[in-house]
């Protein structure tokens, strides 16, 4: 078998070829115009665009559509490829949502490891004041790189959970548009490669938010970063469209919206946000890219006589921030809503009790999503936009705390009076609640403008959003990995190792996030390569050291988890079909799940979370006549 | 039901204790920088109010959660919990009560914000230009231009913030308030220093390579000393 039977290998070759072709094209046009043939920035930019297309062509995710243009029929192929080993389907274009879900998840975990490694490097640098081994520019590139890689990783993790679970939970055969689903995944690969490549062409030093004018002036790395984000954004858009249609159109008989597993509600709200907000970050980054490439002065008030191309100015840097946050605030809910859905999904199973206030939890996700659209100004309280408008943004932001509170209280209602089991997935759910609580509680103090003055752009914000993202994504994601591992592989992970992972990572994370907030209150700004050791009456260095140690502990915990999975995926103890005694449809079928998940169409005969109600079922594959 | 009542009484006591404990811990470990302007008063007051809220809500959720985890653990029993789907009244309570808290906090913050940003006819104006990676201060009254910021104590100050290159942000931790320098526009920040001393202005918006080192010395001096300093600067200018 040659390497090129793997789609991903062909894709990578396609990406390189695309890059070269794009560069040659740019040189050709410049020669025709009578300019010097080589100019690095336009060449890399056009090259990057072509490289994305090159990858997609190479991997083969456009094949079917191209055939359609020529009228060639492409019947849907089910099951592993006929002439190749079964495992190769995970490295090639495959239309089965279960394969795509695993692809998303694994790629997400890989990025999580890359992003984590970057963080460990600069965290080591911060353990003491003074610059030890990182240069200023590299440090600045690293913090932005860490942020954006992690965002990619989170979006992939979210996509993985949604793709794998939603069709199973609603008993659908597959997603509504399987080909689009595969395309949605494969956009991520060239996108993340461009992002990583950007480090090698100068990096980019304006943080993940990439505010111009700074981002309009830095190295070429910016262009690859912008286009990488653009590719991921396309993935978000097609992926969310697919999930929305799947949830709305492919539910079985009897499954009304309020009878779906609650995770589907979370995915629904998330997808609404993704489908409607992602365009804004795409636009804002594309505009900076165009500003750099051809000198359109969108965001620069003054002209500059750059080496690249002269620019006339007349733009506005604050406008960028509006466009950017109009996506990026809803984006933070894109990151956490699915995770909160996992929490709501698992609590009833491990408490053996119905979900408390199903409708309230379901609608609170929607409410958070909708209110989330009118709060973007809270990231810009000191940016110089109309002073008075800060007040409505403040009210709207604090309003988000209410549906968030509803979730917490309903979770408490769920465990109250239950019979609680403490398996690893449940531990991570509880860890998630504790961590998200810290994150949520530190939001309002940032939302009232007077207290945001000292805290904005300080390390306090770093602490706040790490707590929300870990509580809202990382912990629930790990819970989901442990929980569905037996369903995906048919094998059980090692429970002791799982518990060790939890008991290392959770306290370590508390230390990390509280430490970050603490140094912020002392007066440490975020995104600085070096800090003043006299802050906090000279205590800051010991706090920083504690944060760094905690960071390494978290990394160790994550490695333990991956090792646990790696060890047990093939040879672990057989898990059985329903080790958690769940009522959800995916646990009523064999583990691992066969190619066609359900032997017959599902029929809903009860409520999803009726734990404690004797002789009640949720779904059945039997037809009404059978019983 | 009676059993639940006992649980709730115990939980309430624990919540009170836990609130006080969390507040005390936060109050001791969070090391705010000294307060050197009048505005720090109300800002720190609101900050403190938030810490109380955080302590209470943390205690509320943490106590109920830990309590439930201990009392309602499965104890090796494979049965199911109570079959309860929810409680509409409770849901309404915990939706409506937070609404009031939210409006209360927003209201305090709104009036405070209006006070903090109200122009004062007597304010002394200084222009602060941020540039990669240093600060330049211009005193329009005297025409002095300096790399250090010297401020007269007990005088309302308005900083006019400008930049010619990229975004920067004016922040002295001891002054609490913060405002970005934005190319193409003039932004303002107002404060009244009330503590003589030396502080550091720290650029708070990532502005490129040496952002972490974009600092300036800030000296708050007595009004007499300020006058003296200013005439020195004017003399320097005339040389
Ligand atoms: C109770 C709800 C919340 C409130 C009131 C709140 C409020 C805020 C405010 C006002 C800021 C701006 C701080 C500043 O830059 O000065 C902020 C930053 C941030 N918040 Fe939240 N937040 C809440 C929950 C969340 C959640 C659920 C997430 C999800 C991940 C989140 C993620 C973030 C992120 C990523 C930032 C920083 C972005 C950056 O500047 O890089 N927050 N939050
Ligand atoms: Cu936000
Ligand atoms: Cu700066």
- Give the ligands present: protoporphyrin IX containing FE, copper (II) ion
Give the second-level CATH assignment, the architecture of the largest domain in chain A. Answer: Up-down Bundle
Chain pair forming the biggest interface: A-B, 96 and 82 residues
Unreliable spans of chain A? none
- Sheet of most strands of chain B: 5 strands, mixed
SS element count, helices of chain B? 4
How many independent structural domains of chain A?
A: 2
**Span of the ends, CA to CA of chain B:** 88 Å
Task: Give the count of structural domains of chain B.
Answer: 2
Commentary on this structure:
The complex is a heterodimer of chains A (627) and B (239). By secondary structure, chain A is mostly helical. Chain A folds into two domains: 1-74, no CATH class; 104-616, Cytochrome c oxidase-like, subunit I domain (Cytochrome C Oxidase, Chain A, Up-down Bundle). Helices cover 63% and strands 1% of the residues of chain A. Chain A has 17 helices and four strands. Chain A is globular and about 75 Å long. With 239 residues, chain B is α+β, with helices and mostly antiparallel strands. Chain B folds into two domains: 2-71 and 93-117; 124-238, Immunoglobulin-like (Sandwich), CATH 2.60.40. Chain B is 44% helix and 23% strand. Chain B contains four helices and ten strands, in the order H-H-H-E-E-E-E-E-E-E-E-E-E-H. The longest helix of chain B is centred in the first third of the chain and has 32 residues, at 40-71. The mean pLDDT of chain B is 91. Chains A and B meet through helix 5, helix 9, helix 10, helix 11 and helix 12 of A and helix 2, helix 3 and strand 7 of B. The structure holds protoporphyrin IX containing FE and copper (II) ion (2 copies). The site of one copper (II) ion has 7 residues of chain B, from loops.
């Amino acid at each position: 078998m040659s390497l090129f039977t793997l789609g991903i290998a062909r894709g990578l070759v396609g990406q390189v070829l695309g890059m070269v072709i794009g560069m040659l094209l740019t040189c050709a046009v410049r020669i025709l115009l009578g300019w010097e043939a080589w100019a690095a920035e336009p060449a890399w930019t056009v090259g990057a665009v072509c490289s994305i297309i090159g990858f997609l062509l190479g991997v083969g995710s456009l094949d079917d559509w191209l055939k359609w243009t020529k009228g060639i029929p492409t019947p849907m192929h089910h099951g592993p490829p006929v002439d190749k080993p079964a495992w190769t389907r995970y490295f090639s274009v495959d239309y089965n949502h279960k394969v795509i879900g695993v692809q998303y998840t694994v790629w997400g975990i890989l990025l999580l490891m890359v992003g984590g490694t970057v963080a460990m490097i600069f965290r080591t640098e911060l353990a003491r004041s003074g610059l030890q081994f990182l240069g200023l520019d590299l440090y600045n590139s690293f913090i932005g790189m860490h942020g954006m890689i992690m965002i990619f990783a989170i979006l992939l993790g979210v996509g993985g959970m949604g793709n794998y679970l939603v069709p199973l939970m609603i008993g659908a055969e597959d997603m509504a548009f399987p080909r689009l689903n595969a395309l949605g995944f494969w956009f991520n690969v060239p996108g993340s490669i461009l992002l990583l490549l950007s480090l090698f062409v100068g990096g980019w030093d304006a943080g993940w938010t990439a505010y111009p004018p700074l981002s309009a002036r830095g190295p070429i790395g910016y262009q690859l970063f912008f286009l990488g984000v653009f590719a991921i954004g396309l993935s978000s858009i097609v992926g969310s469209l697919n999930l929305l249609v799947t949830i709305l159109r492919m539910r079985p008989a009897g499954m009304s919206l309020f009878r779906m597993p609650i995770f589907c509600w979370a995915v629904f709200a998330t997808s609404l946000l993704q489908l409607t907000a992602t365009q804004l970050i795409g636009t804002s980054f594309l505009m900076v890219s165009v500003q750099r490439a051809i000198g359109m002065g969108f965001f620069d008030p003054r002209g500059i006589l750059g080496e690249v191309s002269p620019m006339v100015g007349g733009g506005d840097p604050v406008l960028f921030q509006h466009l950017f946050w109009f996506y990026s605030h809803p984006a933070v809910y894109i990151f956490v809503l699915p995770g909160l859905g996992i929490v709501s999904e698992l609590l009833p199973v491990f408490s053996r009790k119905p979900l408390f206030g199903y409708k309230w939890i379901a609608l609170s996700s929607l409410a958070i999503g909708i209110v989330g659209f009118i709060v973007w100004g809270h990231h810009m309280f000191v940016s110089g936009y109309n002073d008075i408008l800060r007040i409505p943004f403040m009210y709207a932001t604090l309003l988000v705390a209410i549906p968030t509170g509803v979730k917490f209280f309903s979770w408490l209602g769920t465990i109250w009076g239950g019979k609680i089991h403490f398996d690893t997935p449940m531990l991570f759910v509880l860890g998630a609640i504790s961590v998200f609580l810290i994150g949520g509680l530190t939001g309002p103090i940032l939302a009232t403008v007077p207290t945001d003055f000292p805290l904005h752009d300080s390390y306090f914000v770093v602490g706040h959003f790490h707590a929300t993202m870990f509580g809202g994504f990382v912990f629930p994601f790990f819970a989901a990995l442990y929980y569905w591992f037996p369903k995906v592989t048919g094998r059980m992970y090692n429970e002791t190792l799982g518990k060790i992972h939890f008991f290392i990572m959770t306290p370590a994370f508390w230390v990390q996030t509280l430490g970050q907030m603490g140094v912020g209150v002392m007066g440490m700004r975020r995104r600085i390569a070096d800090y003043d050791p006299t802050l906090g009456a000279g205590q800051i260095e010991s706090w920083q050291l504690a944060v760094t140690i905690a960071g390494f502990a978290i990394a160790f915990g994550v490695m333990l988890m991956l090792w646990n999975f790696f060890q047990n995926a093939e040879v672990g103890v057989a898990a059985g079909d329903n080790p958690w005694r769940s009522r959800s449809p995916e646990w009523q079928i064999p583990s691992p799940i066969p190619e066609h998940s359900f032997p017959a169409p599902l029929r809903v005969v009860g409520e999803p979370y009726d734990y404690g109600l004797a002789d009640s079922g949720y779904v059945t594959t039997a037809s009404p006549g059978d019983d | 039901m009676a059993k639940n009542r006992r649980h709730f009484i115990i939980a309430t006591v624990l919540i009170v204790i836990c609130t006080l404990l969390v507040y005390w811990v936060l109050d001791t470990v969070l090391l705010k920088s000294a307060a050197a302007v009048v505005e720090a008063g109300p800002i720190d007051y609101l900050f403190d109010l938030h810490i109380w809220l955080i302590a209470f809500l943390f205690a509320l959720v943490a106590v109920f959660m830990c309590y439930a985890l201990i009392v309602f653990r499965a104890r090796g029993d494979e049965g199911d919990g109570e079959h309860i789907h929810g409680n509409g009244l409770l849901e309404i309570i915990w939706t409506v009560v937070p609404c009031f808290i939210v409006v209360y906090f927003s209201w305090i913050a709104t009036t405070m914000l209006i006070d903090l940003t109200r122009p004062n006819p007597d304010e002394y104006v200084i222009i602060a230009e941020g540039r990669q990676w240093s600060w330049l201060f211009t005193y329009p009254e005297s025409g002095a231009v300096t790399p250090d910021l010297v401020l007269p104590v007990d005088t309302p100050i308005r900083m006019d913030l400008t930049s010619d290159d990229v975004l920067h942000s004016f922040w002295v931790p001891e002054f609490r308030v913060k405002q970005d320098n934005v190319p193409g526009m003039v932004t303002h920040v107002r404060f009244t220093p009330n503590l003589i001393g030396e502080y550091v202005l720290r650029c708070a918006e990532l502005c490129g390579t040496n952002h972490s080192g974009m600092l300036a010395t800030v000296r708050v001096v007595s009004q007499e000393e300020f006058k003296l300093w200013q005439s020195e600067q004017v003399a320097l200018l005339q040389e």
